[in-house]
Amino acid sequence: MPHGAHSTLSIVVPVLNEERNIFPLYEAVIAVWQELPEYAREIIFVDDGSTDGTWNGISSLKRKDASVKGIRFARNFGKESAIEAGLRAASGDAVITIDGDLQHPPELIPKMVHAWKAGNDIVRGHHTTIARHGFPKRATSFLFYRLFNLISDTPIVRGSSDFCLFSRRVVDAFDALPEKQKFHRLLSEWVGFPSASISYEARERGSGRSAYTLTKLFPLARRAIVSSATKPMSAILIIGCILSVLGVVLTFGLLYYKYFVDYEYIGGAVVLAAFVVFNNGLLFIAFGVMSLYQIAIYREVQNRPSYIVRETV
Known about the structure:
Pfam families: Glycos_transf_2. It is found in: Membrane. InterPro entries: Glyco_trans_2-like (IPR001173), Glycosyltransferase_2 (IPR050256), Nucleotide-diphossugar_trans (IPR029044). The structure is a single chain. The protein is of the alpha/beta class. The protein has 2 domains: about 5-210 and about 305-310, Spore Coat Polysaccharide Biosynthesis Protein SpsA, Chain A (Alpha-Beta Complex), CATH 3.90.550.10; about 230-300. The chain has helices at about 20-30, 55-65, 80-90, 110-115, 135-150, 170-175, 185-190, 215-230, 230-260, 270-300; strands at about 5-15, 40-45, 70-75, 95, 120-125, 160-165, 195-200, 310. An 8-stranded mixed β-sheet has the order 7-5-6-4-1-2-3-8, with helices on both faces. The longest helix is centred in the last third of the chain and has 35 residues, at about 270-300. The protein is elongated, with a radius of gyration of 25 Å. It starts with 6 loop residues before the first strand and ends with a strand.
């Protein structure tokens, strides 16, 4: 992998309504470059359908600095699509993705580059300040990682973030994947290239409120699960077989107890109703999981792009 005076580092920043944060982030990245004088820089902001002055700010930075590039989506397509667009537009020998809300510390970029130079194709930022988050976010994060790692063939460490460095061959590997519903945090584990992790303390937001709210995180969790989890399909079959056998055994056992031991103790209608409700609940769960896969397949068959670009600078 090339390093040195003729190498370029690309910074990809997905943003959504971050007009008050993009300038401080830009200044922080520029300050970091004093430690990386041997690398040319490329800073790519991807505006994921902002409704404030974010795009005007990006355009202003472009007029000030030719190394800045901007991609503006036609509407909000989601953070993963913004990351995908940025990675696809990046020309660097290594690409670093960083959030636009100042919670990811740009000061770690030189350490990431050092780990890349040491032979790692992927350098992940791992935040250690989960306790600072509010209870709803901590609870949903805990449930997501527990559920995901239970059913997925490719586990993800809790505390993983989108603050990552990817070598050029990793970026090319991502781009070569034909799937539309990409989840890069998972794919970075799946591709299997040499990797390293760097811990950091997540900061408070620079300004404003997060546009990626809990309601926007549910589609992300759904994308993550259906893009990786093959175990649910097998588990449904196994659970169905076990429940079928168990249902037969229990039914005959209860009938035996009812007619040969204590006729009055067990009401047949009550037992039957309980089994019907229980089995219907399991069926709904199974159909729900299968529906997620069907939705994912439907979207892949549609072959629609993951995003539509309105304009670039």
